[in-house]
Every structure is written in structure tokens, then in C-alpha cells.
Recover the amino acids of this structure.
């Protein structure tokens, strides 16, 4: 494996971990984004490895999962509030 591929994979992992640290707040949207990003990254890694680029698959999956998780977490928080 050449060094460029290793650097890209390392940057992808570091990006995911730093995103997880930033989004790991105490609100539902942040928790949803964190868990959605993690699950999306895992799914993206699996799909990306089939098509030959695990790093891009993980990045796309993490972004999509984080957005979806944040939206769902926010909606759950709004539904749980009593007016």
C-alpha cells in the first residue's frame, strides 16, 4: 500500500474522530449526528470497499449519516417536549 493511500485513510479516520468529538454534545441532535455519522461511516466503508475506495465511502457515509441523525435527533427532541 503506498503512502498516499495510507495518508488518505488516516485523514478520513481523523476527520471522523474529530467530528465525533465536536458533535458529542448533550443534546439529541448532537447525539443523533454522532451515532448517525458513526453508523454511516461503517456502512460507507463496507460499500466503498466493494467498489474499490473505502475512504471515500466512509466519508460520504459519515456525512450522510450525521445529517440524517441530526435531523432525526432534533425531531425526536421536539416531539418529547411538552407544551
Amino acid at each position: 500500500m503506498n503512502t498516499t493511500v495510507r495518508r488518505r485513510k488516516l485523514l478520513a479516520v481523523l476527520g471522523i474522530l474529530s467530528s465525533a468529538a465536536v458533535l458529542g454534545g448533550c443534546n439529541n441532535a448532537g447525539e443523533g449526528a454522532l451515532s448517525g455519522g458513526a453508523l454511516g461511516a461503517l456502512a460507507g466503508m463496507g460499500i466503498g470497499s466493494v467498489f474499490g475506495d473505502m475512504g471515500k465511502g466512509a466519508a460520504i457515509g459519515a456525512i450522510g449519516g450525521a445529517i440524517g441523525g441530526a435531523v432525526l435527533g432534533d425531531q425526536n427532541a421536539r416531539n418529547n417536549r411538552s407544551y
Notes: The chain has a mean pLDDT of 75. The CA atoms of residues 17 and 83 lie 37 Å apart.
